[in-house]
What does this fold into?
Amino acid sequence: MAAHDAHGHSEVGAHTQEAHIVPKRVYFLVFIALIILTWVTALVSRIDMGPWNIFVALFIAIIKASLVVFFFMHVWYGTRLTKMIVASGLFWLILLLFITMADLWTRNWMGVPGR
Amino acid sequence: MDSNIVVAEHAQAAHRAVRHHFESAEQQRDASTVGMWVFLVTEIMFFGGLFLAYFAYRHAYPTAFASASNKTDLWIGAANTTVLICSSLTMALAVHCAATSKRMLLVVFLCLTLVLGSVFLGVKGYQYHDKWVHHEIPGQNFHCEGCADATHTPLFFSLYFGMTGLHATHMIVGVGILLVLIFQSWQGRFDAAWHTPIENFGLYWHFVDIIWIFLFPLLYLIDRSGKGLS
It folds into this structure.
C-alpha cells in the first residue's frame, strides 16, 4: 500500500482534485438533517391542515432535495457551468409542471362551454 | 499483493492521462461532471412527465387519490426512506474515500451502499407483494377495500407502480454498476488523481435518492389526515 500511495501523487492532475474534497463533517450534518426531516414530514402528515398538507410535504421535500443537490452532489462547490445546467433543468421542469397545472386549475373557474 | 499493485498501476496509467482534446486534468474532470449533469437533467424531465401525470390526475380525482394513498404503509415508507438516505451517506463517504485515496474504505463504503440499496429494493418487493395479495394491482382482479370513487382508484395505483417501478429500475441499474465499481475499487483503479466513475456514479445514486424524496410524500403522505376518508 505504501508503494502505491507514493506513486499515486506523482502523476498529472494529482493536485487538481483535492480542492473539491468536502469535509466529512458536512456529510454527517446533512445526513442528520435529512433523517430528521424525513420523520418530521411523516409525523406532520397526520395533522389535518386542510389544503396545506401537500404544500408542507412538498416544502420539506424541496429542502431535503436541495441539501442533497448542494452537498452530497457537490453543486455548492461546483463550477458556474454545473450550477447553470442544474438551474436550467429545474427551470424546464417548473415550466412543464406549472404551465400545465395552471391550465387544469383554472379551467372551471368560468362556467362557460369549451372549458 | 505485488502483482495487484502492478495491475493497478497499469490501469491507472491508462486512465489518468489527460486526453488530447483537454487542456488540463481539471478541465477534463469538469467536462465529465457537466456531462453527467446533462444526463441527469434528461432524467429529471423523464420523471417529470410522471410527476405531471400524478398532479394532473390528483387534481381531477382528489377523492380517489386521497383514499387510495391511505392504502400505502406510512411507517414502512418512512423506514425505507431512512434506509435510502443512509445509502446516500455511505455513497458520499465512498466518494470522499476515493478522493483521499483510501482504497479499503472505498470498497467498504461501496459495499455498504450496495447492501442498503438492496435492503430498499427488498422492502419495495415486500410492499409490491402486499399489494398483490390485496388485489390492489390495476387490472381484472383489482379491488380496493373501502376506497371512495372506485372507478378512479386504479389510476392512483397505476401511477404508484409506474413511478416506484421506474425508480426501482434505476436502483437495480445502480446496483449493477455498483458491483462493477466495487470490483474495480478492489483492484485499486481509483485514487485521488482519478476517480471520475466513482464521482459520477455518486451523482446518479443521489439523484435516484432525490426522486424518492419526492415520491415518498406524494404517494405515502398526502391526505393522511383527511376526515371522512377511509
